[in-house]
Specification:
By secondary structure, the chain is an alpha/beta fold. The chain has helices at about 10-20, 50-55, 60-70, 90-105, 120-125, 155, 160-170, 185-195, 205-210, 220-225, 240-250; strands at about 25-30, 75-80, 110, 130-135, 170-175, 200-205, 230-235, 255, 270-275, 275-280. The chain has a single domain (about 10-265), classed as Alpha-Beta Barrel (TIM Barrel). The radius of gyration is 18 Å and the shape is globular. Bound molecules: zinc ion. The site of zinc ion has 3 residues, from strand 1.
Length: about 300
């Protein structure tokens, strides 16, 4: 079975809309790669969505190349590689895999960091391979005693790690937590704090701050509009209003394309009902999804 069913309609959209618009070569700033064998017995922590697990048990570099070929047959995509940020993954093996293939393919990579690592260890690890251009952090690695809904950015992207990133001008790729998403002042005030205190950090706020519904924006754009540095990736965000507001406020130079592979190998249309996002997928394409309120 192909990794992605490309039908006549998809081909038409590519030929008539995407191909004339896209540069021949472009960057995908958000691509997860890992193998199933890197999983450990460790219990997964809640606080992340379940539905992404339906899409793929792993995502090898070969699968990334094939997905890019299927989606953009006449373009060259440079994928920024990083691991699967889950607590049931062997970080060391995953980082080694990312580094090996990043080097082989001349793709940049980000080191999957754990907040428990000392600043010295983080610095040593990232510097150990020039393929690493910075770090990927994730809310799953926040200390276990913090309730999932209360995780703040600095609980998993620590000030110590930000100091190291600031010293070297590294990327920090950030997926924010909390049910109110971008609209939560704890999130946007800490993004602002990173911008002001760590001016050399190349912060990327993933998924437009997970503002998938209009209601998820709140006052964030008004507060952040005077910032100059941090970047947005619009990975997995299909909300036209949010994308337009970010584009108009921050400019296209602050926005990046990302695939979030393998997640958006899933064919879906995303809709929003009462501020709640729903992925509508072809009937039966991922088995029974009735247990997940985000799937239809
Ligand atoms: Zn991601």
């Amino acid at each position: 079975m192909p990794l992605l069913q490309v039908n006549d309609y998809d081909r038409k959209v590519y030929e008539e809309e995407l191909k004339p618009f896209l540069p021949q070569t472009f960057i995908d700033c958000h691509c997860h790669v890992w193998l199933d064998e890197f999983h450990t017995d460790c219990e997964k922590r809640s606080g992340s969505q379940d539905w992404p697990d339906l899409v793929a048990k792993d995502n090898s570099v070969e699968d990334v190349m094939e997905t890019n070929r299927l989606l953009f047959p006449d373009n060259k995509v440079i994928s920024v590689l990083y691991g699967e940020p889950m607590i049931n993954i062997d970080l060391k093996r995953n980082n080694e895999y990312v580094a090996k293939y990043g080097n082989e393919l001349s793709f940049p990579a980000l080191y999957l960091a754990h907040p428990k690592q000392s600043a010295e260890e983080l610095e040593r690890e990232v510097l150990s391979n020039p393929v690493f251009k910075g770090i990927k952090v994730y809310l799953q690695f926040a200390p276990g005693y913090i309730p999932d809904d209360e995780i703040r950015i600095f609980d998993f992207l620590t000030p110590e790690h930000l100091e190291v990133c600031n010293k070297h001008g590294w990327i920090a790729q950030l997926h924010i937590a909390r049910p109110k998403r971008l609209a939560d002042p704890v999130n946007y005030m800490q993004i602002l704090e990173i911008e002001e205190k760590y001016p050399n950090v190349k912060l990327i706020v993933a998924h437009l701050g997970r503002a998938y519904a209009d209601e998820d924006v709140g006052d964030a754009i008004d507060v952040l509009k005077y910032t100059k540095n941090f970047m947005w990736d619009f990975t997995a965000n299909t909300n036209e209003n949010v994308i337009r507001r970010v584009l108009e406020t921050f400019g296209s130079h602050r926005l990046m394309y990302g695939s979030d592979f393998p997640i958006f190998r899933m064919k879906a249309r995303r809709t929003v009902e009462n501020g709640f996002y729903i992925n509508e997928i072809p009937q039966g394409s991922l088995g029974d999804v009735s247990y997940d309120r985000h799937m239809r």
